[in-house]
Amino acid sequence: MKKIIGILALGLVTMAFVVKSESTKKQESEGIKFQKITLEEAKAKALENNQYIFIDAYTSWCGPCKKMAATSFKNAQVGELFNEKFINLKIDCELDADGPELARMYKVKAYPTLLIIDGTGKLIKQVVGFQTEDRLIALANSVD
Fold this sequence. Notes:
It is a single chain. It is built from 6 helices and 4 strands. By secondary structure, the chain is α+β, with helices and mostly antiparallel strands. It folds into 2 domains: 1-30; 31-141, Glutaredoxin. A 4-stranded mixed beta sheet has the order 2-1-3-4. The N and C termini lie far apart (67 Å).
């Protein structure tokens, strides 16, 4: 009897991990897809594709940055809009190679700072602070 209960318990734990894993995979497939390219590569791509660049300028210690990464950026509607409209970058302004220069160039003083720039590097929009899904959608729709 103890063996049967043990086997059942093991089966339930295994199923819980499988369900959680599938849920995580689904979340990863939704939301904003941030590209792992340099700012210069993004600018070249933006010019080639006639797109703007969306930049999440963040730091590793920023609480609102982490919250937005776990919530607003994972939203399916936000992801669909941003992935279609922008070249998306996440740049740690302290640790990434482009970070300190980006923070200086665009006068980033607080985190998170969200930037929309064109392929030449010209600033189109800058928003500071935590953004909800609705505010991100409004931001994306505010640029042509």
